[in-house]
Design goal:
Elements lengths: L1 E10 L2 E8 L4 E6 L6 H8 L7 E6 L2 E2 L5 H7 E4 L11 H6 L9 H4 L1 H10 L15 H15 L3 E5 L7 H12 L5 E5 L3 H7 L2 E6 L2 E7 H4 L3 H8 L3 E4 L2 E4 L4
Parallel strand pairs: 3-8, 3-9, 6-7, 7-8
Antiparallel strand pairs: 1-2, 1-4, 4-5, 9-10, 11-12
C-alpha cells in the first residue's frame, strides 16, 4: 500500500502539491499535460526525490525511514528514461532486480530473471547484449527487472512508449495480469489507460484535479478538453483528440 499525505515537492519554479493520495489495489492511471508533475510524483514515491514537506508511507512506515533493500521490497520503479547498461547481457540486467534478496543475486536470481523474461515476451533474449535491444525491448526488460524485485507497489512511467501496436497490446495484457498488486501507471496514451486501469488520477499544474473510475473520467470529453486544452471525441471506443482544428 502507498499513501501520500500533504505531499509537497519544489523543483525550481515548479511546485507539486500539496497532495493527499492513496491508490487502491489494482492499476491506477495517472494522466495530465506535460509538466504537470506525473514523473515527479513517481520519483517521490520511489524515494528518488525527497519531499519538501509531507510524507509518503508504505506498509504503514515512512518511506524515508527504509533502507535500500527494504524500500526495494515495497516499491519498484520503471522509469520513463530508458536505462543504458552497456556491457551487460539481458539476463544480467534483469537479475539485478534480485539484489534485495541476496548479495549473490547474479547466482541466486537467474531462475526468477528467466521467468520474468518469459512474462514480458523476451524468451530467448537472455544472452543478448542489453545495448543492442530496441527501445521497446529495453522497456520490457526494465519491467522484467522490476518483476524480479517482487515489490508490492509498481510505479510505471510511460511503460507503453517505444512499443509497436502488437507489443503495446502484449504490455496491456501483462499489466492486467499484475492487477493483484498496487500499480501506479503514468501514460499520455488515454486508450492504453482505459484498457488497463481501474481508476484514473488526472493532474494539472502540480495538483490532482480529478480522480475516479477510468471508464468515467477518460470518456468525459468536456473534462479532457479542459485538462489538455484541446477538444476530444470518443468514437469506436477510442479516445481521440481533435488535432485538425
Amino acid at each position: 500500500m502507498l499513501r501520500c499525505e500533504a505531499l509537497v515537492c519544489r523543483r525550481g519554479d515548479f511546485v507539486l502539491g500539496p497532495l493527499d493520495f492513496v491508490p487502491g489495489p489494482g492499476i491506477t492511471g495517472v494522466c495530465g499535460p506535460n509538466g504537470c508533475g506525473k514523473s515527479t510524483l513517481c520519483a517521490l514515491a520511489a524515494g528518488i526525490l525527497r519531499p519538501a514537506s509531507g510524507r509518503i508511507l508504505t506498509g504503514g512506515r515512512e518511506l524515508a525511514e527504509l533502507d535500500g533493500p527494504e524500500r526495494a521490497g515495497r516499491i519498484a520503479l520503471v522509469s520513463q528514461e530508458l536505462p543504458r547498461a552497456e556491457g551487460y547481457s539481458v539476463i544480467d540486467f534483469v537479475t539485478m532486480g534480485y539484489y534485495r534478496f541476496s548479495r549473490r543475486f547474479y547466482r541466486d536470481g537467474r531462475e526468477a530473471a528467466l521467468a520474468a523474461l518469459g512474462t514480458v515476451d523476451l524468451d530467448g533474449y537472455a544472452a543478448r547484449d542489453f545495448a543492442t535491444l530496441s527501445g521497446g525491448e529495453k522497456r520490457r526488460a526494465a519491467l522484467a527487472r522490476a518483476l524480479v524485485q517482487d515489490a508490492a507497489v509498481l510505479l510505471l512511467d510511460e511503460p507503453g512508449s517505444h512499443l509497436d501496436y502488437g507489443h503495446n497490446r502484449r504490455m496491456a495484457g501483462i499489466l492486467r495480469g499484475l492487477a493483484d498488486r498496487t500499480i501506479l501507471l503514468v501514460s499520455h496514451d488515454l486508450d492504453f489507460l482505459a484498457a488497463v486501469c481501474r481508476d484514473v488520477v488526472a493532474m494539472r499544474e502540480g495538483k490532482i484535479v480529478r480522480t475516479g473510475p477510468a471508464d468515467v473520467v477518460l470518456r468525459d470529453t468536456r473534462f479532457l478538453a479542459g485538462l489538455f486544452n484541446t477538444a476530444f471525441t470518443v468514437a469506436g471506443g477510442r479516445i481521440l483528440p481533435e488535432l485538425s482544428s
